[in-house]
């Protein structure tokens, strides 16, 4: 059974459509990367999974199911129960998710309840030094604070961990260490991961599947290596070409051409059409329905055409 299902989700902030009919599925035990340029809607989608959107956000259409439960239609008590039982969250800024007035051990004891063992949970995130439990958040490095936030998020053995760029603010070596801990702990605990990221090579390496967002929709999804190595959507191909790993030494990165999607008003057709080298007239006014290309589900009118498929190969 699908652990997470997002169907045609539309979320508006005042004056901005952040999600414009997003679709996503995540199976039990799976790791799914969610990638896309800034403003494509990743954080809004991640927050919607736990109905953790800011008060100004409005759901227009669509639904989010976690373990079959309709997150947006649950009464407050059932929603709290669902969050506790099924969901854990880690964000980019760990300090913001920790209580500055309480020592780490005390924060863990609050989550774990009586009988919980903070040292065990800190050990699971490779913080074995007993001084950590006695520290206040401001006494920790960024990487250590993020591991504490992870220990708190994983303390209730959630079925799904939503990780919103938890390593983006860390330097590269610490980033790898923290990512290792997240994926190893989730694998050990049988927890699925929704991993929001700008780091395409890391997603290709670590995640089973990937979903690529553009203009508030998931425009391509499928096995991570396949999607990022042999993209089918022209946007994914442009994104993969602009990724650091795609550049040979000394060769400048190719930026995705044109300005990013302005999400202020929903696009009548494909949101990428104004930037797309393959756009034809219908792309501007007709929304693409999903097509299957190899193992990928793609929102593009032309992705299945042989000439367009060939042109998407990275480096082509
Ligand atoms: N609290 C908010 N109020 C108003 N608009 C918002 C709010 N949060 C996000 N937005 C807008 O919604 C759209 C989607 O933003 P979101 O943060 O979900 O994208 P993102 O892909 O996570 O970006 P980033 O990678 O920069 O975090 C953007 O146009 C953004 O400006």
From TrEMBL:
Domain (ABC transporter): residue spans on this chain: 4-240
Membrane topology classification: Peripheral membrane protein
A Pfam family annotated for this UniProt entry: oligo_HPY
Single Gene Ontology MF annotation: ATP binding
NCBIfam families reported in the protein's UniProt record: oligo_HPY
InterPro entries registered for this protein in UniProt: AAA+_ATPase, ABC_Ni/Peptide_Import, ABC_transporter-like_ATP-bd, ABC_transporter-like_CS, Oligopep_ABC_C, P-loop_NTPase
Keyword list, A-Z: ATP-binding, Cell membrane, Membrane, Nucleotide-binding, Transport
Designated name of the protein: ABC transporter ATP-binding protein
CDD domains the record matches: ABC_NikE_OppD_transporters
Family per similarity comment: Belongs to the ABC transporter superfamily.
Record bears the keyword Cell membrane: yes
Subcellular location, principal: membrane
Domain of life: Bacteria
Subcellular locations according to the entry: Cell membrane
């Amino acid at each position: 059974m699908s652990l997470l299902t997002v169907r045609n989700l539309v979320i508006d902030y005042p004056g901005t459509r952040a999600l414009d009919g997003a679709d996503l599925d995540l199976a039990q035990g799976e790791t799914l990367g969610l990638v896309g340029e800034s403003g494509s809607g990743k954080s809004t989608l991640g927050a919607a999974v736990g109905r953790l959107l800011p008060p100004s956000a409005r759901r227009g259409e669509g639904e989010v199911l976690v373990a079959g439960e309709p997150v947006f239609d649950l009464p407050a008590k059932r929603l709290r129960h669902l969050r506790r039982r099924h969901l854990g969250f880690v964000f980019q800024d760990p300090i913001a998710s920790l209580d500055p007035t309480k020592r780490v051990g005390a924060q863990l004891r609050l989550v774990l309840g009586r009988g919980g063992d903070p040292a065990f949970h800190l050990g699971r995130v490779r913080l074995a030094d007993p001084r950590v439990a006695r520290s206040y958040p401001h006494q920790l490095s960024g990487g250590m604070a993020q591991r504490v936030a992870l220990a708190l998020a994983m303390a209730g053995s959630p079925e799904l961990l939503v990780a919103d760029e938890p390593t983006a603010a860390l330097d590269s070596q610490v980033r790898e260490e923290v990512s290792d801990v997240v994926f190893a702990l989730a694998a050990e605990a049988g927890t699925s991961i929704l991993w929001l990221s700008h780091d395409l090579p890391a997603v290709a390496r670590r995640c089973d599947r990937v979903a690529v967002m553009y203009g508030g929709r998931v425009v391509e999804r499928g096995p991570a290596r396949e999607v990022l190595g042999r993209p089918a959507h022209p946007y994914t191909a442009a994104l993969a070409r602009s990724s650091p790993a795609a550049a040979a030494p000394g060769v400048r990165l190719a930026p995705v051409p044109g300005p990013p999607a302005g999400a202020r008003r929903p696009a009548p057709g494909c949101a990428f059409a104004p930037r797309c080298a393959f756009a034809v007239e219908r792309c501007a006014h007709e929304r693409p329905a999903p097509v299957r290309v190899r193992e990928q589900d793609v929102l593009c009118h032309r992705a299945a055409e042989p000439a367009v498929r060939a042109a998407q190969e990275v480096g082509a």
